[in-house]
Amino acid sequence: MIVVIGASHDDILYFEKVLYNRREEVFLNRYVAYIGTVFNQELLVMGDQYGSILSSAVVSHILNKYYVDLVICVGRCFGIDKRTKSGDIVISNNIIDVNADLSLVKNVGIGQIPGFQHEFKVQNDIINYLKKGVGKRSYITSYDAVYLSSDNLAEETLKILNQNRGVYGITDERIVFDHNSAGVALAATLKDIPYVSIKVVQNLLDKEENIDDYLKVLDKYIDLGKSVVSTIGDIGRNDILRGGIGNEYKGS
Amino acid sequence: MNTKGRNFLDRQKNLSSLGRFYLIVPAVILGVDVIVSIIFAVLYLAKEERVFLILLIVFFALSLLAYIAFSIFMMKRLHAVYYEQIYLTTYSNIKKLAANDTSFDFYRDLNIDEVDSMNDAMHDIKKKFDNSYLVVTTPDYTNLNLEYVDKNRNLITFESFKKNLFNIIHVSQSFKNTLISVSYMLDDELSEDDKNRILNLYFHTFNDYERTLFMFGEDGKSLIIYLPVIDSLSRVKEQLELTASDSSIVIREAGGLRNIAPRYALVVYPYSSEEYLLSDLRYARRQNKNMNIFIPNRIENNIGKNLLMSSTMNHSYMSKILSKISTLEYNATNSEESETAIKALFDELVKFLELDEAGIIVYDDSTKAYRLLLASEGANIFQKNKTIDQSFISSLESASEDDGSYYFSTRNHANKVLGRQLDFFGIKSGYYQVVTNADGRTIALIYFFNRYRDFYIDSYLRESFFMLCLRIAHYFEKKELLDYLDLRNSENEYILSMSDYMLYKSNDEFTLTYLSNDLKKFIPKATIGGYCYKELYGFDRPCNDCPKRTFKAKEVTLGKKRFELSLNLNERKKQNYAMLLKTLSDDEDVDSRVLFNENYLTYSYYSLHKVLKNEYTSSGRGYVLLLTIDNFDSFLESQKEQGLLFCVRSLIRNIKNKLKISDVYLYNPSTIAIHLPSYGHADVLNICENIYDVSKEHYLDDGSDDQFKLTYLPVGYPRGYASVDDFMRHMGDFYRSDKNERGKDFIYFCDYAISRSASKREFMLSVIENEFSGQSTASVNLQPIVQVSNKHIYGAEILLRINDVHRGVFFNAEEISRIAEKENKTHIITESIINFVGNLYKEHGKGAFKINDFERIAINIDQTYLKDPNLIKSVIELVEKNNIPDNFISFEIPEDMIPDNIDKIKDFANQLKSYHIFFSCDRFTGEYIGSEKLKDLGFNEVKIARNLIIKIDKDPIQLKAVEDIVKNAHNVGIKVAVVGVENEAQYNILKNLDNEMVVQGYYFYKPLTRSDLISAIVSYN
Fold it and tell me: 0.80 exceeded by the pTM?
């Protein structure tokens, strides 16, 4: 089974519609997931997973219940790097949880959760599959990006980033911001299951959010959906995925 | 009732004695009647004399009459007391109480104890309500006949909402109520699954509002949400924007799946009255944006007419509060006093409204930070003299509405950006007003916050808060301005110290009010408050030749130095004259005076010569406009030298600043020259019209009516003059020529034999009189109206085409009618048009028109024509005299003028009802009035505005808007016309939309002359 997680209902709308033999399942008494097949591959789709904490808990629950090959986090994100533009599709190569600062509790780096590595790296194979999928289905370029993920407000994240860029080891990579990738990555890492985030950039983080920008993103969701579904087809045909590559615990 | 009876009744003191009186009197009558009847009966039986029988009958009849008379009197009296007074007055008061109206009726003085005590009780109730406020925030729909679709009683039918709209609004009419449309641009209706999901989503979004009503629109593609009692519009907008990311739907198309996001339309009562709410919502939906909020400019009318708003029981208390600060004014000496008054007011308000605290945060220019200025007793949210974080102020700014105010009844109803800050400070509810200066920077924040409670106020209280805050805001704006002026003053001092000027100010009584620092040092004994002539010059009385009296500069001696004393012309105010002392020196820069005239503060004749020389070198062309001040001498006489200088300088300054013309020169002392490079003939006319307006401003503050009278002499260059000197000579000859009559504000072109008034109004008036007088109709064109089904010419619209011969363009017809109205000349135009129609029908009505099915002549009218009393008479005469068929004459009234002239239009339509005149609503967009209301007013047709049609073939949203209008018009039985059809694609779309509509546009015909129209009808029909 492949799991697709979105923050809002619109994020997973495309996947919900393309599911074959669709059925609904309620997790933890309140979160509705749609389960069906795409290209003979079983797919579980779930929206409304706002924030790292909720997504982490719900994904853990799903991973405990089903045998999952891959967790894909979809939706929209915000660019921090000035090179990112509204409408860009960005695929995570690294996910960093910027909620956390436990450096005074344990001897860990800023953003690192004790017992875990500093950043959640994503398998290159998956990135390549998704890139191919995006290029093949929507004829647009996708970009690798570092995902900073936090439940905090945008301006606070920017403040943290400006103070700690060196600590995070970010140099010249594209950087985007979202709310739930870190939670999904944490849950998947605990079960040693591969994960990736692929999202559409709505706007730069320091710009005011407005409905017009969102509607532009909505158009891109179809491209995103097509690309991910195409990748799911490819994965189903050829490969066995292995989670946790490069994620060895380096310890405090 | 006789006097005796009244006196008797007047003695009654209570209802029980009144009751006894009405019981005893009939009993007495009956008793007397029985006894006397028995006596007469016994006598008759005993003596058998007929006289006793007659007496018995007579007495019985009389007593019966007396009984009947008393009964009638008694019934009347009881009716007056119990029904007219006690019942009706009580019922009226109960109704008023239910409507929160405290203008209670009192019982008439009946000299009855119980009634007096009821009046006393009413006085007590009134007094109590006058000193309290009441807010009922939960609307109750139980008495309404709403048709619920679901068991939970959330979803109702749109039909029942429409039927009950007035009553629904009525139950919460003292609040802002919002109607929201969430619509999807779909071909088919929403699926049941999508409907359920969207309904659930918005139900959860707005679950913190009481009694929200949901309904699906008639088209099945939209969800309509009625939100009663909202706090702030910005909060509702934010909620919709946040929900947008969950409310898209996916449709399957030929090209694959497509996401469709909802489009929001939002209207608010009372900005839209209940009558217009739905039509305004339809209009908002047609706007080409994702979030369409439509707040029409009808608020004053609506609120003014809203009885509840003007008589609510919350009115009287807030009026009292507002009256307390009506005299609040800032000046440097009473700022503490004023701030104490504000604090006292806040204390009172906080107590009355059970608020936790109120206060004012201000921007401190010295520390460049915000701090608490004052707060009500016991306030502790903000600490005095501690800096308040900029991010808090910024979030308050960003959440506030357009007018700077913001209200949140509970923490849940605050915007997201604000909520976080409120949590930080522990604020639960409140109202605040952001006060900004001209640069948009927040200079003060007036707040009313609750820490632990919710805060419910109705729209009236909210408006009252707004007025209160506005008053205080003015105080702070003035404070900032005066602080700024103080700063400027010190800057001026600095500048004065660097120059050879000194300055003092004195008032009408020659009392010194200000001394510049240099002057204080120069004459240390001079003190403010003393007389200027004494303190500065050592005289005993004011000088006769003081510039304040003569408006002329004079030479004075201070100590051993000579000075030129003059009035500061820019601050020429009677209350406080600014007097400049300039050290007299013989060293003057002669060259600079040649190119620049210091008196008039503009370039001199020689500069003009130099500039024109440059123009000649670069082969430029253009105009020099000479403005002669024809009343120069009389100005000089009345205003003296300095007064005249002030006025001419002001005129030059206004020409430079307002008209953005920098090349202004002094041709001679009474003539200004304006260089207009690359200007054409029409541009010069425009400039002259603008200068005319500027010249008629009042430059004098002494109340005199002196205005400039100018003559405008534009001279074009190079026009064959080989050199600048030749041109200047030619210009001089033209200037001196006595052919041009002076003092009339006329323009005389040197190179054209034409002249006209520089006043646009005067000129247009003369045009109106020339064009429309007599039988002249040369200025009327006809725009054919075509039937979309067969392209036949169905009618024609009369277009006024008045040529501006000087510019070679047509005048704007609306501008003409406006001028005509002002000068009471509308009837000239009306008569001319009616005559035109009459002649046209006489000539072709029974011939070309009848044979070729030409059935309509449309005349455009606006409010100016409605005021013309002769119009109706002329139309009736026209119809009767020529036997014109029904609906042949059509009046087209623009939509935007209808709401303000509803009574006039109704009256106009009613008077012409029996003459079967066709009424069309021109330039219809639905912004101002809905189709239903148009139908009620007697309109037969809507003519869709050109701007909605222009992209109909390219933009599906525009097409949808037109479809909506057509559908609504058909629903109420109104015909549809369209203007501005310019290509075949547009024609085909419209034909498919409504095969019965009529259209106009360049795709068919451009405006035609009368003869061309007849040929077109004959050829094409």
Answer: no
**DSSP bridge partners of A25:** A33
Is the Cβ pair A10, B247 closer than 8 Å? Answer: yes
Beta strands in B758-834 (DSSP E): 780-787, 793-800, 803-804, 809-810
Low-confidence ranges of chain B (pLDDT < 70): 1-13, 99-100, 130-138, 297-334, 550-552, 568-575, 585-596, 701-705, 752-753, 773-779, 805-810
**List of E strands, B669-779:** 671-677, 710-717, 746-748, 755-757
Domain A2-238 listed as CATH 3.40.50.1580 = yes
What are the pLDDT digits (tens) for A184-206?
999 999 988 999 999 999 988 87
Residue B135's pLDDT is what?
A: 60
Taking CA atoms, B890 is separated from B172, B860, B887, B930, B979, in Å, by 42, 8, 7, 20, 15
Pick the closest to residue B582 from B561, B600, B552 (CA basis).
Answer: B561
Nearest-angstrom CA–CA distance, B784 and B169: 45
- Give the helix ranges, DSSP H, for A19-71: 52-65
Q: Contacts of residue A214 in chain B, CB cutoff 8 Å?
A: 241, 244-245, 261
Helix (H) or strand (E) holding B258: strand B256-260
Sort out which chain B residues have CB atoms less than 8 A from A209's CB and list them: 241
Give CA–CA dist B664/B673, Å, rounded: 6
B279 vs B299: CA distance, rounded Å: 16
Q: Does A219 contact B at CB distance below 8 Å? A: yes
Q: Is A239 on the interface with B (CB under 8 A)?
A: no
Q: What is the pLDDT of residue B600?
A: 76
- Please report, for chain A, the start and end positions of each structural domain, with discontinuous segments joined by +: 2-238
The verdict on a CB contact (< 8 Å) between B290 and A212 is yes
For residue B701, give the 3-state DSSP assignment.
Answer: coil
B-chain residues within 8 Å CB-CB of A9? 197, 201, 245-248
- Which pLDDT belongs to residue B322? 66
Give the whole-number percent of chain B exceeding pLDDT 70: 89
Q: Report yes or no: B608 and B626 within 8 Å, Cβ to Cβ.
A: no
Alpha-carbon dihedral sign for residues A129, A132, A137, A141: positive
Structure-block tokens of residue B183:
């619509």
Give the count of Cβ contacts less than 8 A between chain A and B.
Answer: 58
**Beta bridge pairs of residue B377:** none
Which residues neighbour B683 within 8 Å (Cβ) at sequence distance 6 or greater? B676
Q: Name the E strands within B529-560.
A: 554-558
In chain B, which residues touch A (CB < 8 A)?
197, 201, 241, 244-250, 252, 256-259, 261, 264, 290-291, 420
CA dihedral sign, ordered B150, B152, B154, B156: positive
Q: Interface pTM (ipTM) of the complex?
A: 0.79
Q: Which of B347, B376, B374 is nearest to B445 (CA)?
A: B374
Determine contact: A15 vs chain B, CB below 8 A. no
